[in-house]
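Record format v2
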Amino acid sequence: MGEGPVISLRDVSKVYRQGSVDIHALRDLSMDVEAGEFTVICGPSGSGKTTMLNLIGALDAATSGSIVLEGRELGGLNKKELSELRRDRIGFVFQAYNLMPVLTAYENAEMVLWVQGVDGPTRRERVMGLLEQVGLKGLEDRRPSELSGGQQQRVAIARAIASNPAVVLADEPTANVDSETAETLLGLMEELNREQGVTFLFSTHDPQVMERARRVVRLVDGNVASDERR
Amino acid sequence: MSGPNVATLAWRNLWRNRRRTLLTLGSIVFGVFLAVVFTAMQDRNWKDMIDLAARLGGGHVSLQHPEYLDTPTLTRTVVRGEEIEAALDGEGRRIARAVDRIVGPTMLATAGENFSGAFIAFDPEAEDETTLSILEALDEGSALEPGDSDGVILGHRLASNLGMELGDKVVYTLTDRNGEIVSGLARLRGTLRTNAPTVDGGFCLLPIGTVRDLLGYGEDEATMVAVFLEDQRRSGGVAGRLDRALGETVAALPWNTSQPQLAAFIALKVGGAVVMEILIAVLVAAGIFNTMFVSVMERLREFGIMLAIGWSPRRLFRLIMMESAWLAILGLTGAFLITLGPYVYLSSTGLDLTAVYGGTVEVAGVGLDPVLKVGIFPRNAVLIGLFAVVATLASGIYPAWRAGRVQPVDTIKVV
């Protein structure tokens, strides 16, 4: 990883066309995310949070502007390169966990490493360490249906950071769990951020998350309304 | 603890909806079972018909004068000399038996009546029911014995029309190779009852040695050499080789050339069977396709997640195709296990349809076995298996392609 921000957005716009109407989800948005940040994106519904994370996550393409991840301009990459970028440099934590129901906790956490082609012993060492780190030691063989919501989200976090990504994009990671579990999950992610330097970019409405963030970016009408660093 | 791989993941995905998978497997098993039994019945039926036709006519391969097929007269003959024997020996064990026959028209007369008919002159020492099936229709009296030079067997209606009883004399008249009328005297040894008017009312069997002498043929001369094979499916190949080996003086004709009407009938039935099998295959394939497609459409969100975390469309394609492959493997295994028992029973014991037919079944004077048996040609069994695999895999192609076309941004919600 070179010098400069992990993520850099410059004059990014995204326009969706619905029938004959153009909807401007993002309007010339510019923003940087530095390595090791613990950042929250918040804002009212329709402010562009979804669109922004979709673009940073290389799941969608901007209508105009530039998005650079670790020095690579996403607009210049083809589908295969974008897929490899997501696999190797971006971790996803979804609101609904989105684990593979037919895989065990271990196998879910291992999946990205498997897709990367990492050898078995290395995968095993890495995944067992991660599961212990997220507090799931002894539950490796359980399937998602045999885990609580909090435990499933821990597996999702382990999966997201297994490949040492440049950034973890977390979609309302505490929305489906009780406040106590949310507190535990946030503590876990804070610990990963603090001790391993994992960069987190959250989207949330949860005040609990916003309280813990070291940077809160508020979007309004597709642009940055405020950017508070703590 | 081992990590997932595409085969394991596909296997587990298959059992996420156990009921649907079992129904799909059931349709594969049932389809293959139907195809195998249906094809086995047809294969056995055609084999029996062709063997029967060979026994009624000129064998699986007929060696005859090149012009005999178009103008079957007693002047067009072949001599079973060294050349023919060498050619037959060259085929080795493919040939079960080769017998000489003289076939032609005759006029039969007693003191009071005369009627025309057709005759087959054969060697009673060399032939029995296995090569001359009409002998199975012997009604009264006895078959021609080896060495019997003046016996004749007539259709029972012909014998009746001639006013003959067993042991009575009849004069048969032929036209020899020089166009001269020649006659022989024979005694009635037996009668045939086939319920086929042309046989019962106008057919007779004569000893070949006597007819040769009468016609002025040489010792090994006949209008045809009927060649019987171990496996009728080799008729074309054997006939082709014999034809090339024997040059222009002798024509070697497979049964489907010497009996074009039967060949056309069987071709028609084969065509009908192919249509039926295609219908079964399409129905089974449609069922599998439906299962795979629904299964994929239900998991679009999951595929979106997989693509988001770095799965390639190609890997997703492989996953779905692997699910199809598992279906094919399980379906074929199940089909084998389910089909084996009934097949073994039907091929060895068979179904007795005597009650259905209301007695014996006869075709052209030859009793057909009322016990329905099956016997599939190995090639057809392999083809059915291959077709089942290909149809199952092909059914997965579009769903697999569709899975890889999922846009993660459309199927998952990041924020």
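The longest strand of chain A covers residues 21-33.
Residues 179-196 of chain A form the longest helix (18 residues).
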